[in-house]
Design goal:
about 160 residues, alpha+beta, elongated
Length: about 160
Amino acid sequence: MPNVNIPGKVCSHCNDTKWLEYKIKVKGEVITRWTCAIKRRETNRRYEKNNPEKLIEYRKRNYLIHGKKYQEKFKGYRANYYLDNKEKILEYSRKWEKNNPERYKELVKRKDKKAIDNLSDRYLKLNLSNYSLLHYSEIPQYLIELKRKQLLLYRQIH
C-alpha cells in the first residue's frame, strides 16, 4: 500500500494531498481504493492502543506463519533505513537519552550484562584493551577467541 500524492484530490480530514492506495476484490474484480494516509495512520495507532492483546496475538501468529522468511525480509529494510537516516536516528537517540536518564542507564546495564553473559566480541575487546597496551581497534580476532576460551574455562572452574 504505497503513499501517493494526488495534487487535485484534497482530503477533508487534514487538507493534504497524500493518499494511501489499497486494492480490494469485489465479485472477482480487483478495485483500487484511496484513503487519507494520515487518517489511516491515526486510526491504526488508536486501534493498537486500544487493543494491545489482539496486536500481540496477531504478531505471534504472523511470526509463526512466516518465521525466518519474515525476519530476513525486514532485516535489509531496517539496515537500509538506518543508512539513509543515520543522523536523524542518532539525534533522536541522543534526545531520548537526555530526557530518560534512568531508563537509559537501565538499558545500558541490561545490554552490558547480556554482553558479559554471551562473551560478545565488543566486551572481550574492551576487556583486553583495558588491561594492556593494545588499542581497541588493534586487537585481532584470534586474540578475542583466545580470551573467550580463557573466560569460559575460568567460568567452568569456578
